[in-house]
Amino acid sequence: MIERERPAFPIDFLKDLIRKLRIPGRRDGGSDRFPGPSSENLADDVLRVQVGVIRKAFKAAGLDVAGAPIEGKRRVVDDADVRYLYRPGHILARREDVGRLREFFESEENQKRFRGKLDARETRVPGLVLAVLPSRTDEQDDVLATLVEVEDGGFLERGAATPDHVVYVTPKGYLCPATEPEVPRSRRPWPPPTPYDREITDEKTKIRVTVVDSGLWKDAVGSAESPWLETDDVFAGNEDLEQVIPTKIHEYAGHGTFVAGVISCIAPETRIDVEAALPYGGAVFESDIVDQIQDALEENKPQIISISAGTHTRDNHELLSLVLLAQNNKFDENDDVLIVAAAGNDSSNDPFYPAASAKDYPWVVSVGSVDPDKKVSDFSNFGKDWVSVYARGRNLVNAFPKGTYTCHEPPNKGKVRKFDGLAQWSGTSFSTPIVTGLIAAEMRDNGLTARAAWDVVRQTAITEYDARIGEDIQIVGPLT
């Protein structure tokens, strides 16, 4: 939900350009969704609000988060400068590297610079350790400054230990015009339900998809407003059910339900298990989300894991937790497990994980967003080296809680919207389940493994040159 951009051009240039244009970010220089003049600081204001939602949710649970800058080893002061969020005082490391970390903290010099001892705690992922760091006696950050010193001192290679990043859903992001949920103009879903005249009665033969998201709003399942969410296909444990107050729908409510609905429309007769893995304003610590995925792998044995969430990372290193999760579950050797992940909504080509792992591993598919005109959505991340494919992510319509929602982001802050079981939403969060559904349908119809089905779906892609990003892109799925 929340995350700035370097390789294409500097982030400050992009921010200044948006301000000079005085628009929320549309290519055509205006927006029918945002009437009237917009704030010169709209991009900054939106990011502050989004980070604020996460901070508030973590704080309510007795937890804290910190913001890291694009460069440097000090926490940001202004949330408009956040590159990624992380857990203060904690890092992730391999079990075999804990000894080297202890050597660093137990050296004579560092015993004077730190208070306490390193506390290394095992996670649900074998070999992955969550380490509570000794506190520093200077004013430097316990995580950012300490990791620099550990690496510069030669105790660990760069990226061998990482912050415990905050992973967040991505319906809207920095420099992103994708809206908060809107009241749809039509009572029909988009993408429309795909006709399928065969009922699969044997649950063991259904394709299994796990949606790692905000949980399931159960009232949508089997309802008159969203009948494509069938009671025989969409599931969530009691702990994964999303509680919604109808008179005050909370931020990012219904996100997981909406994603499940898109998959159901594209691939009927697919078993979808929705996990409430992002409980804090649509966010969670990296160490916790891999625990949830590990549980899902053991309990539901999914063939596709759909993740409309992610984060930028320290120095663009891959998520250590996901690498170890994959190693322990032998993803490289298993053609029937695939992660489909959102590329993020920063209008940037800076890697966004776990989606960016697609550049290194065959078990990850990274999904960007295009508009109906086949152009990359102005909110979508991009990059031919790590975005695998694009699907429509603009103005999708699907299941959403009934009730009233008060907008919390500028320029619509304070506006009240009333929903009756459907919403319109935009972002790579929603292009992702289109690709998930396409893969699941191919598996269902032709008895293929997840990776083989992905190869077939990829072969259906059309190639378009996008002048804005200067790249050829591959597009799959319906557009209009």
From TrEMBL:
The keyword Hydrolase applies. The keyword Secreted does not apply. Residues 206-461 form the Peptidase S8/S53 domain. Keywords: Hydrolase, Protease, Serine protease. The active site is at residues 213, 255, 429. Residues 179-199 are annotated as: Disordered. InterPro entries: Peptidase_S8/S53_dom, Peptidase_S8/S53_dom_sf, Peptidase_S8_Ser-AS, Peptidase_S8_subtilisin-like, Peptidase_S8_subtilisin-rel. Belongs to the peptidase S8 family. This is Peptidase S8/S53 domain-containing protein.
